[in-house]
Amino acid sequence: MLNYVIKRLIYMIPTLFGMSLIAFMIIQLPPGDYVTSMLATMADSGQNVDPEQLEALRRSYGFDDPIWLQYWKWITGILFRGDFGYSFEWNRPVADLIWERMGSTLALSLASLLFVWAVSLPIGIYSAMRRHSVGDYGFTLLGFIGLAIPNFIMALTLMYFSYRYFGQSVGGLFSPEYVEAPWSWGKFVDLLAHLWIPIIVIGTNGTAALIRILRANLTDELSKPYVITAKAKGLPEYRAVVKYPVRIALNPFVSAIGWVLPELISGVTITAIVLNLPTAGPLLLRALISQDMYLAGSFILLMGVLTLVGMLISDILLALLDPRIRFN
Amino acid sequence: MLEHTFIDEAPEAGPAVSALKAGKPVQTAVAGPWQLMWAKFSRNKVALVAGVIILMLFLVGIFAEFLAPALPETARPQFTNAPPQELRLFTTDAEGNRHFQLHVTGYTMTVDQASLRRSYAIDDSQVVPVGFFVRGAPYKLWGQFPSDIHLIGPLSPNDTMYLMGTDKLGRDLFSRLIHGTRISMSIGLIGVTISLLLGVVLGSISGFYGGWVDLVVQRVIEVISSMPTIPLWLGLAAAIPLTWSPLTVYFVITLIVSLFGWTGLAREVRGRFFALRSEDFVTAARLDGSSERRLIFRHILPSLTSHILAVVTLALPTMIVAETALSFLGIGLKAPVVSWGVLLQDAQNVRTIANAPWLLIWPSAAVVLTVLAYNFLGDGLRDAADPYES
């Protein structure tokens, strides 16, 4: 087991390296650097610009270094000092800005993952046991529609309905009176009242996909001789299904972390922008539009790392569950 | 298969196999793989309907100028955020007789003096006659052929016919949606073509050679597919300079969308290559002295065509949704260009949507319909891709 984990960790290194290259490329992509754009704004507002001072600024940020050296400085800063660079728009180190936002992104993604699991398990089992029933077709149709509606359209639609029929404004995570308030029961209920829309929006795609997988896996499993034997010896249907076949069909639930998580984080990003939630999404979009590239690049890198860690956890869990993976 | 019957103690006489009976040769029905696939595909009615819908959407995109009653950029400031006008078939005259007359209902507009906001009410008594093949605003079909004939439109050019309402500048949403179909559908198609090239080339190289080439390609795929797509798209699209022309932006957006869409395709192709590499017909071709290029392009790829077609169809909706999302966020296609995403940009906040729900409903419906149709079509194609499988 330990060997397996170590092997997986070593496999992660080139992937991490690739991700850091992509994030760095995005940082470098916009033409010009921050000093040139600052020069432009200062010249626009008629301020005098001291060329020497600018030169010093450029040197201190290393904008004139060759590209590989800039990458080396950037990545070693992150790895050894936790220094993600400087946000020129906020005039603060990037590291001060990202952690809280990444935390809420992670929390929202996990909440959505729990939603995906909680909804798709019973529906998947039901659909596999009652194949071609009205309920099964109903869920299949719902699943297809769920897969077809893009996150942001669903967010807008739910927002509209909630505004129209409940008179509730759904932006943000809290009502105005609770934003600054200390934690209390009322604040918690208020959070739940705001949270259902983003969670449904983010989780629907994954739920629909997971139901399809679970239904297919369980259907294969249900026709195996051991299930027939169990039923033949008089085990009630419920126990004959839940005791063994469901357990085996649960593997995709664990491996789902690996492929659902990038989707969830993607979904959280755009949904949060539409619903104005305090996660990484809105800040990332704002940073990109104002070309505050170190902030934007750090978000992109960390979101990639987050999914990679999620995949690692799912692989380890899968190996714990299934000895066939551990020993191969 | 010949049937053999063994009779013990039969006399040894004559050849073991009797001569074929003279007369009509036996009729054997022969169907090629594509015929079998079509037979299997056409049994799936849902996929068939989905295919027809996709075909119609492409036709709408191709003949957008002719199908749209108005030009997409024509604005009538006196009709801002006007609700949809209903299309009706019959009118009733003063004596209560019903006549056939295609028309839309008119509006009465009231201006709230306090807020100066216009509100519209559908007025059944007003009849705006409309007809087919009417003369309206002049346009050039595909930028080439000048014409002013529109499939449907009000008979008098001064009348209004807003089947899906108008936006905040008083532009006809129906016409804009039709023009948006052209951009959105073509972005998907071009994007998937680029993805296809990348995916097939890298997937076949990786699957055919294996070894370290495979290892490198696999790592690249792993990196790309484990990055969350929307932040990546955002990062790349935001780098497009504002000064670029709409056409350049269009192609760059297509490129960005396809740059991350090829991994699934490459995986599929690679897997099939691994399976096919050791098949007898490939070995035979190799022993015959075929070059590697010939092996890949002449022998292996053609037997994958149907699978590739299915995967491509399933990848298309992702591209369309990606463009829509980027444009919606304001860093994709921009104003003079009309795509479904650009249309949805007008439906950014709850207040606008509550005021003019059609701005959200119709463009969203177009996106969802397209994605659904592509998914059903792709599922049907995937099931039909291997006609020899029971």
Summarize the structure.
The complex is a heterodimer of chains A (328) and B (390). Chain A is mostly helical and 328 residues long.
List keywords for this structure.
heterodimer; A: 328 residues; mainly alpha; MetI-like fold; two-stranded antiparallel sheet; B: 390 residues; alpha+beta; 4-stranded antiparallel beta sheet; 14 helices; 4 strands
By CATH, the topology of the largest domain in chain A is MetI-like fold
Query: Can you give the mean pLDDT of chain A?
Result: 80
What top-tier CATH class of the largest domain in chain A fits best? Mainly Alpha
CATH architecture label name of the largest domain in chain B: Orthogonal Bundle
Identify the biggest protein-protein contact and residues per side. A-B, 49 and 40 residues
Number of strands of chain B: 4
Any guess at the CATH architecture of the largest domain in chain A? Orthogonal Bundle
Please state the CA-atom Rg of chain A, rounded to the nearest Å.
25 Å
Strand content of chain B: 5-15%
Percent of residues in helices of chain B comes to 40-55%
Explain this structure:
The complex is a heterodimer of chains A (328) and B (390). By secondary structure, chain A is mainly α. Chain A folds into 2 domains: 2-94, no CATH class; 102-327, MetI-like (MetI-like fold), CATH 1.10.3720. Chain A is 78% helix and 1% strand. Chain A is built from 15 helices and 2 strands. A two-stranded antiparallel sheet of chain A has the order 1-2. The longest helix of chain A is centred in the middle third of the chain and has 38 residues, at 185-222. The N and C termini of chain A lie close together (11 Å). With 390 residues, chain B is α+β, with helices and mostly antiparallel strands. Chain B has 2 domains: 76-166, no CATH class; 177-384, MetI-like fold, CATH 1.10.3720. Chain B contains 14 helices and 4 strands. A 4-stranded antiparallel β-sheet of chain B has the order 1-2-3-4. The model of chain B has no long low-confidence stretch (mean pLDDT 79).
